[in-house]
């Protein structure tokens, strides 16, 4: 809408008092259809950095049921950030010196890491930013009906900055997802456990990636 058109519209509303209620209704309807402003990145410090993604999961529970979850989470998030970096200024110049599998192997080869603070470990990893994911609950079955499928997962997302061989936690966000998003809490029969697992990993890594880029607000 140009400035002149806007002025004509205002003049008409002011000059025709009888039409004012209808005009207000029209303006309200138009405002409701206007797109929402984009959501800014929650953390903006990845551009130009050497980034690593490390995933922690409980070996006494989560890794027994889902032994590949560290690899799948790390690899899928890394791939999404790589793709987003082509168009997002928040990720411009980002690089990944090591693949997700390298971090998983490092964790397996150094089991003592379980007793160490990630802030002590981060400076040894050869990156300047570490995305550290702590996996919480992960299920593919509905709580109320075990035979029905429903993916649910929660995780804690952290970003650690490493400078001068010192690490600092600068961002943290707890998140939870459900897959499929609109599935009833009772679950559904039409999916396999594998489909639910993959969909849930995809869902939560998408939410994680959005924390690092400006993106449209798709909330209802």
Estimate the mean pLDDT confidence: 86
Low-pLDDT parts are 1-24
Strand order of the largest sheet: 1-2-3-4
Spell out the helices and strands N to C.
HHEHHHHEEEH
User: What share of the residues lie within helices?
Assistant: 25-40%
User: What form results from the Cα inertia axes?
Assistant: globular
Supply Rg: 23 Å
Largest sheet: 4 strands, mixed
| First-last Cα distance | 26 Å
Count of individual beta strands: 4
Structural class: alpha+beta
What fraction of residues sit in β-strands? 15-25%
Helix count from the secondary structure assignment: 7
Secondary-structure map:
Elements: H1 3-15, H2 20-33, E1 51-56, H3 62-65, H4 69-84, H5 100-109, H6 118-121, E2 129-141, E3 149-163, E4 166-179, H7 193-210
Parallel strand pairs: 1-2
Antiparallel strand pairs: 2-3, 3-4
Task: Give an account of the 3D structure.
The chain is an alpha+beta fold. Helix content is 36%, strand content 22%. The chain contains seven helices and four strands. Strands 1-2-3-4 form a four-stranded mixed sheet. A hairpin with a 7-residue loop joins β2 (129-141) and β3 (149-163). α4 (69-84) packs across α7. The two termini are 26 Å apart. 27% of the residues are buried. The model is unreliable at 1-24 (pLDDT under 50).
Which descriptors would you attach to this protein?
220 residues, alpha+beta, 4-stranded mixed β-sheet, 7 helices, 4 strands, 36% helix, globular, disordered N terminus
């Amino acid at each position: 809408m140009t400035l002149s058109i806007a002025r004509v519209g205002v003049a008409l509303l002011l000059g025709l008092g009888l039409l004012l209620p209808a005009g207000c209704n029209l303006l309200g309807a138009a405002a409701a259809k206007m797109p929402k402003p984009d959501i800014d990145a929650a953390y903006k410090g990845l551009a130009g950095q050497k980034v690593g993604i490390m995933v922690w999961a409980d070996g006494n529970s989560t890794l027994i049921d889902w032994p590949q979850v560290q690899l799948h989470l790390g690899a899928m998030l890394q791939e999404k950030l790589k793709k987003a970096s082509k168009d997002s200024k928040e990720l411009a110049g980002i690089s990944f010196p090591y693949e997700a599998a390298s971090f998983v192997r490092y964790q397996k080869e150094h089991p003592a890491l379980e007793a160490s603070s990630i802030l002590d470990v981060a400076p040894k990893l050869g990156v300047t930013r570490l995305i550290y994911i702590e996996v919480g609950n992960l299920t593919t079955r509905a709580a109320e009906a075990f035979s029905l499928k429903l993916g649910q997962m929660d995780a804690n997302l952290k970003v650690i900055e490493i400078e001068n061989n010192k690490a600092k936690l600068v961002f943290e966000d707890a998140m939870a997802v459900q897959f499929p998003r609109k599935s009833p809490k009772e679950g559904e029969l039409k999916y396999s456990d594998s489909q639910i697992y993959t969909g849930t990993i995809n869902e939560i890594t998408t939410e994680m990636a959005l924390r690092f880029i400006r993106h449209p607000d798709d909330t209802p």
